Amino acid sequence: MAKTFVFKFGGASVKDAKSFKNLREILFNRLRNHTVIVVSAMGKTTNALEELLNLKLEDKPIYEKSTKLKHYHLEICRELFLPENLIFPAIENFFSQLDRILEKPLSKENYDEYYDQVVSFGELISSRIVQEYLCAEGIFCLWQDAREIISTDSDYRFAKVKWDKTASQCQKHLMAKLERFPVITQGFIGSDEKGKTTTLGREGSDFTAAIIAHSLHSQSVTIWKDVEGVLNADPKRFPNTVKFEELDYKEAAELTYYGASVIHPKTIKPLANLSIPLFVKSFLNPDGSGTQIHHVDKPNTVPCIVVKDEQVLVSFRVTDFTFINESHIHQVYTEIEKLKLRVNLLQTSAISISIVIDKQLFKMEKLIAVLAKDFDIRYNESLQLITVKNHNRKITEELMSEKEVLLEQVTRTTFQIVVKPLAQ
């Protein structure tokens, strides 16, 4: 099998015409024939598509929002292409398909499946624009529908990969193309056995890059971000951040588990299993060293701070004067698994279980409806979960200063608090 390379470009790297030109410059001197380029939706397109769904749920008009989103894509194309380019009717066709889907009824019951059919258009459109633009600029490449290569189950919005079938399809559909030209495909999306579009979880394009790299036994994966590499904290929230020149797979996986947004949580495992290095580099400074994630013997001791917004703290208190035991935890976790929720923090006391989860539409009310007969349930929304890996007293005291702390948990290496965010 020929040596392949995988590049992934996120939404910020294709948010406007200037960004497309920058992407072309990055690829011009770095592109090999055996390169797969994974592309996210442009700018904040996924957010806009989610807003369309919310309007649809509330039975409000969606035409204005949909038209605005189409014009956003067309305006960028007008800066990049001649008027006769085929990208313009292609975009019109994509939005006609989207409009036809949005004419169908949407409810709480079919929301997840409906979501995947709608939100996937962001990646489909952006990848076509990238392919057309690169070809117009003399960098010839082929377009691949990711739904033909990423095979999943039907767990809509959180689809699980069918690894053997995906590897077979990647080799079948990609290798012959890669012998001739680089290939452009979409992040975040796949398809189930029925051929229906599925998605891999929010911000799942990094994971797509890892899936393809694992399936093709690639030489490396490079994720192009708007930061210099993997930092020990979000530079938008904390001053004086530290960039890691290298990071071990396990350390990177832990940081993503706690919510570090620079890499999708599922990205590390398929790469680590085959010792495929992951490079995180800046599309704003492509010649910078970035961060290499691979096997590193020396443990990291630099404190790392991760903040997760829009968290919900839920407490389940037993109502019959018994103490919390394993059966209570199992009961709560069973319902959480059914609803495809992920627990970011768990704490138990003699009479209650407290969990911290991401806010998700409809999920909270469903969880309460099922468990309310056995527990007294209280919850707080719009919270922050702050995690410090390799903590020290100075950092923890600073983070807790002037904040209302609702929950605190400390281990030898990790410090976590749930707080109400300070008013902006």
Q: Would you mind describing this structure in some detail?
A:
With 424 residues, this protein is α/β, with parallel strands linked by helices. The protein folds into 2 domains: 5-225, Acetylglutamate kinase-like (Carbamate kinase); 304-420, VC0802-like (2-Layer Sandwich). Helices cover 37% and strands 23% of the residues. An 8-stranded mixed sheet has the order 3-4-2-1-7-9-10-8. It has a 6-stranded antiparallel sheet with strand order 12-13-11-14-16-15. A two-stranded antiparallel sheet has the order 5-6. Strand 12 and strand 13 (352-358) form a beta hairpin. Helix 3 runs antiparallel to helix 4. It is globular. The termini are far apart. This is Aspartokinase.
Beta-strand portion reads 15-25%
Query: What is the C-level CATH assignment of the largest domain?
Result: Alpha Beta
Going by helix content, strand content and strand pairing, the class is alpha/beta
What is the typical, i.e. mean, pLDDT?
94
Separation of the first and last Cα atoms: 54 Å
From the structure above, extract its key features:
six-stranded antiparallel β-sheet; 2 domains; globular; AsparK_Bifunc_asparK/hSer_DH; 13 helices; about 425 residues; EC 2.7.2.4; Carbamate kinase; Asp/Glu/Uridylate_kinase; kinase; VC0802-like; aspartate kinase activity; eight-stranded mixed β-sheet; alpha/beta
